[in-house]
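Structure tokens please, single chain.
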Amino acid sequence: MKKNFKILQMLVLVSALALPACTQTTPSMMNESAIQLSQTTIVEQVLFEDINDNVLSALSSHYLQNGTSALDLTMTYNPTSKNFTAMNAVHELGHIKDNLKKNGVTSVTTQTMAVPNGVPSLMVSYDMVQALAPHDCATMPGLERNGTTRFLGQYKFGCSVDTMVARQIAHPADLQGNSGLGTRDARREALILDGYSGAEPSVPLEGLERDGLTSE
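Here you go.
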């Protein structure tokens, strides 16, 4: 009897020592990836005859939300044309720049380019940052597509929330923190937070007037 009891004690001891060696091999069903930032360069061409206030308003809105570099505008013209000359190109660029400034876009560079036999058009270019869903993330089956619960095993919980959050970020470049954004000060940081907490787009600083101060 004592012998059997000792054998039982040894088996219990061996089992207890073996327990810490057990590992969890089941993959997590939770999303563990962060929201991604995509850096690209926008290059578009708009025929001069198609440029209007609505087009410039849409351009301003997209640039203010996503742009990270100066907005570069190039007006092309036909050097042999008598209807739209180099002077016309410079004049129209001035009007467009003024329109964009009224919409809040102040960092703009302009130039003209002769294109033999070309049609007058505006070339638009700027660098931008967009917030995207985490890597390998999609919304819950059935939320946006025709997937059903039978696809739930492939879904990582939390992806839907992160995807929706990425779509609602007003200024994706803010997710970069201090990296690559130059000198930062407390006033700019406060404006960013105030904009998000108030659900309103941040307003570009205009000297010291925003604090009720003057430069005198």
